[in-house]
Amino acid sequence: MLTLTFLVKTLIELYVMVLLIRIWMQWSRCDFYNPFAQFIVKITQPIVGPLRRIIPSIGPIDTSSLLVAFILTTLKYPILLLIQIGALSLDPMNLLVGLLSLLKSAGTLVFWVIIIRSLMSWISQGRSPIEYVLMQLTEPMMAPIRRVIPAMGGIDFSAMVVILILYALNYLGMDLFPGLWYLL
Questions:
Q1: Closest by alpha carbon to 36, among 50, 20, 52, 21?
Q2: Alpha helix stretches (DSSP H) within the chain
Q3: For the chain, how many structural domains are there in total?
Q4: Is 50 helix (H, G, I), strand (E, B) or coil?
Q5: Is the Cβ–Cβ distance between 24 and 133 less than 8 Å?
């Protein structure tokens, strides 16, 4: 049962991350002709495409992708509970758990995108299409920090400041929802 639990949880979390990247790419107006952006669109289109005909976007936010991500995070723990103990719990508290799980997934996604962008900046020097999308995603967060704390000695500290802010928000989540935040 642990293997099945791990697989189901990992698949749901990965697909939620891909949906969140799609939302984030639309919000930051990424180049959707980029091969990486095309991959994200193609992997999410079978589920999001039909919903986009029914649920319109609200400004730069892809609401249909956000709805699918929220539904997946809301159903994740009842499905895992069903796998582990064979009981299905349809509690209204699952909506709060789904919302908190979605927020935590978004923070985790921002963390890893910044880490990957920082590592790729040492290796590829801007020639990778993936790095171009990562730059378009993270630049709106890092540019204001760069105006306050400029690069010193060729080292850009804006990624470190954003990661410290994410850690602070994670600890805030632990303080506000002490037992629940660890389970997400």
A1: 21
A2: 2-27, 35-54, 63-85, 93-123, 129-148, 158-176, 178-183
A3: 1
A4: helix
A5: no
Instruction: Give the tokens for residue 141.
Output: 């967060």
The single-letter code of the amino acid at 96 is: L
Domain holding 112, by residue range, is 2-183
Q: What is the dihedral of CA 148, 154, 160, 161, to 10 degrees?
A: 0
Which tokens go with 178?
A: 């002490």
Nearest to 44 by CA among 74, 60, 24: 24
Determine what percent of the chain is predicted with pLDDT higher than 70.
99
Identity of the amino acid at 144: P
Residues 136-157 have pLDDT tens digits of: 999 999 999 989 988 787 788 8
51-75, pLDDT tens digit by residue? 999 998 888 888 999 999 999 999 9
Q: Is 22 exposed, middle or buried (0-12, 13-18, 19+ CB in 10 A)?
A: buried
Q: How far apart are CA 42 and CA 83, in angstroms?
A: 30
Q: Please return the burial class of 56, using the count of CB atoms within 10 Å of its CB with bins 0-12, 13-18 and 19+.
A: exposed
